[in-house]
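Predict the structure of Thiamine pyrophosphate-dependent dehydrogenase E1 component subunit alpha.
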Amino acid sequence: MVEAAVSSERLKDWYYRMLLIRRFEETINEKFLAGDIPGFVHLYIGEEATGVGVCSTLTNADYITSTHRGHGHTIAKGADVKRCMAELYGRKTGYCKGKGGSMHIADFSIGMLGANGVVGGGFNLAVGAALSIQLRKSDQVAVCFFGDGASNRGTFHEGLNMAAVWNLPVIFVCENNQWASTTPLHEATAVTDIAVRSASYGMPSEIVDGNDVFAVYEAAQKAVNRAKQGDGPTLIECKTYRVKGHFVGDPEQYRTREEVLNQMETNDPLKKFLERVLAEKLLSDAELKEIEERVQAEISEAVAFAEESPYPKPEEAFEDLYAEEETVHA
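Done. Here is the predicted structure for Thiamine pyrophosphate-dependent dehydrogenase E1 component subunit alpha.
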């Protein structure tokens, strides 16, 4: 049974955010293939429960760092889907004025420090944010989302070691989606569980079903409480699966279609959530339908907003390159 702490309002919010991410990504896939979106996009479909479960334990004051597959984290943290959509369309009304695109969305007002095109690029950003929290003695936490492939980068070990040495309020969330680009986990990583690597730094860890928002939320809440009480960092490994290719248009010759279909049939986070809340009568069909209609309306509005927004002017490419000068008073 669901813990008493999980209210119906939280359940509704989980479904709303997971479905909003799913519909956003499906729309991006469609619009990219139609030629409406420039650059490359990497979709978060199938991993929604991890981002939502973790971010639902955070406030706007808490920080997250993301990855090249960052739309889901951004939306889970509370970003405006209209501005997200406009950014992917390369429009001036986007979060980065259309200059960052899919892999570089940020919204400091909600603690989203930025998606990152560099694999493993978020570790030391999150550690730096956590160090600032410690120095300011503020009631915050920093979260670093990363994939299984990034755990083989040097920044993983540098970041975890420094966080442990300084006992920083940071949580490392591994979204183990089984694939580092086109390479399966077992061919490039010497351990089956990324979480065991935390022992090298005297750091506690936990492995959870990353497609079960209840399990992710529970583990994240414990880690957040631990960090904010001054007990240091935690590593959470969320076992999930990357349903879509590494990027939209990926021919996916490295795996079978049957494998993907089986994952969606047996391990889809949205399907698992619906089965549980309906079986335990936690939410009604009417409540779920209302959320679905709200999400569809918001996605339609986001597409219209993006398509109607202007492109930045060519000369604006030279703006926002440097921070504005501040007057220093003696």
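The mean pLDDT is 95.
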